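Sample 3 of the quickstart, ligand zinc ion:
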Amino acid sequence: MKEENCIFCKIAAGEIPSTALYEDDDFRVILDVGPASKGHALIIPKDHYRNLYDLDDELASKALLLAKRMTVKLKDVLECDGYNIIQNNEEAAGQTVFHFHMHMIPRYHGDKVGIGWHMGELKEKEKEEILNKLK
Ligand code: AMP
Ligand code: ZN
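Result:
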């Protein structure tokens, strides 16, 4: 399943140039053109899914396994000190390309990569509400 005018469909199919680190029947792994740090890469499935909400179950499992294998290898290649795996869903969460992808962002001691949040407080009322609605 491809979607017309989707840049990641075209990249995954090799129709638009990219720096590919890995490829198999399901995925292409490329270097991000706007890297947060040296070695920032993206795991992109060849089929089109808008994001995690509608990603095929089997591909979801394969994507995480691939992230594991790639980061285990790349951490030695890049000599980085850590890794963030990030995956954005919808605009409110920072998604800008609406074709599922996983970011693999190498981290280096002292880097200025800004991933984080201010810790809030788990309120009793919110906790109850979430648990009740989940039932
Ligand atoms: P997101 O904000 O999670 O949707 O991430 C989209 C990512 O795709 C950003 O980090 C962009 O830098 C990256 N990106 C956009 N176009 C390209 C491209 N042609 N090749 C490689 N990475 C791209
Ligand atoms: Zn697509």
